[in-house]
Amino acid sequence: MSRLLDLLEEERRKLNQLGETSLKQAIPLWDNPEVQEQSRRVDELVARVSKTKNKHSRVVR
Q1: Torsion angle in degrees (nearest 10) through CA of 8, 13, 19, 22
Q2: How many CB atoms neighbour CB 38 within 10 A?
Q3: Would the pTM of this model clear 0.90, i.e. be above it?
Q4: 26 in the Ramachandran plot: left (φ > 0), alpha (ψ -120 to 50) or beta?
Q5: Would you say 12 and 49 are in contact if contact means Cβ atoms under 8 Å apart?
Q6: Where in this chain does the entry annotate a coiled-coil region (predicted)?
Q7: Model pLDDT for residues 5-42, shown as the tens digit of each residue
Q8: Could you give the angle at the alpha carbon of 36 between the alpha carbons of 45 and 3, nearest 5°?
Q9: Could you tell me which of 7, 10, 1 has the C-alpha nearest to residue 52?
Q10: Quick one: DSSP state of residue 30?
């Protein structure tokens, strides 16, 4: 789980960097394919973390 959270944080940092660069270049975030792809990666990791947390909470109960 810790590895997954570390990966999520790393991908979020990448997304933030891409977003900042895009905005500095006056490119809307929704028009930047790199930002959109990175956002999808982050979304997928968030879903995996949530699913993993739900599994663990069921086991503990």
Answers
A1: -130
A2: 19
A3: no
A4: left
A5: no
A6: 1-55
A7: 999 999 999 999 999 999 999 999 999 999 999 999 99
A8: 20
A9: 1
A10: G
